[in-house]
Amino acid sequence: MKTTRHQLTALPLAAAAILFAACQNGTAGNPGQNDAKRDAAGAPKAMNLKRTELARFNEPWAMTFLPDGRLLVTEKKGNLRLFDPVTGKTGNISGTPSVAYGGQGGLGDIALHPDYANNRMVYLSFAESGGNGTQGAAIMRAKLALDDQGNGQLSDGEVIWRQVPKVEGEGHYSHRIVFATDGKMFVTSGERQKFFPAQDMKANLGKVLRLNDDGTSPADNPFFAQGGVATQIWSLGHRNLLGLAFNPADGKLYEHEMGPRGGDEFNVIERGKNYGYPEVSDGDHYSGKSIPDHKTRPEFRAPLMTWTPVISPSSLMFYTGKRIPQWTGDALISGLSSEALIRVKIENGHAREVERIDMGERIRDVVQAPDESVWALEDGSNAKLLRLAP
């Protein structure tokens, strides 16, 4: 059974349906194309969704549900929080790794091992110092124990993966984690704003990686014979990959990444493929220097779609519930600069944006809850955790 940070959503949980105070009403917005019902004038009709504030966090980065319906939330400064939707209380989990906090660095993603119910193993990604002003992403796995007071502790923590090489700068760590149905772990590793490591097989920067659950490299990876960090690589030529999720409808792995100045991408990830960055992009360098478009280099795998102006995509999920039927089967992308949730429909190998929900704030993460509502996490200090449902 596939278990990722966005799953464990089919579990029955009455508590997740409880509404809390501080409710805000909102409606789904639209950027110009929408497959929802249309009004009498022919314009796309927005769907009414109630927005309920559940809690607040300090610079949250990622969240995932536990089997009992409680929610784990990471905060960039190194805190791991436990939110209980029944009581509305937020506790603390000790034992998190020391993080290099600054810029885009800090505590990042969190994922449960596919056999979490038996081994209680969780995975945390984070930025760590490397000495001489360098940093890099890493992944720690540890066992989680919870107490009766709504708190918990991580034990037996070990770092099982690191970015190579560590470089200066505090951007483009990426470090998203998802597990496949066979138990293999996929990790996004950003190019750390250094451009050309994305094409360097001696670096695991600018890549999607496929690992065993202990951080070792599977022997059937496409570049395993090259040795070194190339054994980890599943695909290459990526920039800043903040969204990674399997689509239950087709079993394929999808990813989105921030383009440079323009050209945010939505990709289907294929074994051994090169996605072209920085040789090609539908955006240009911030310096103004042009980058050839994808269409000029057909040897590289082109994205399914791109955005200019950018949406600054920050996380990705596929909605499998029926509570919001218009969304069933579609991808949901949280947006930072776009301050929105972006709904993408995938049909016959093509992707298109069909709805944009104006959230009014930068959105860092989005997940499906056990009761099939959608929970969105704002970015920054005093960030709201919001529940969206009809």
TrEMBL record:
One Pfam family of this chain: GSDH
InterPro entries: 6-blade_b-propeller_TolB-like (IPR011042), Glc/Sorbosone_DH (IPR012938), Quinoprot_gluc/sorb_DH_b-prop (IPR011041)
Record keywords: Signal
Cleaved signal peptide residues: 1-21
Occurrences of domain Glucose/Sorbosone dehydrogenase (ranges): 57-387
Matching PROSITE patterns: PROKAR_LIPOPROTEIN
PANTHER family on file: ALDOSE SUGAR DEHYDROGENASE YLII, HEDGEHOG-INTERACTING PROTEIN
Protein name: PQQ-dependent sugar dehydrogenase
Species of origin: Lysobacter soyae
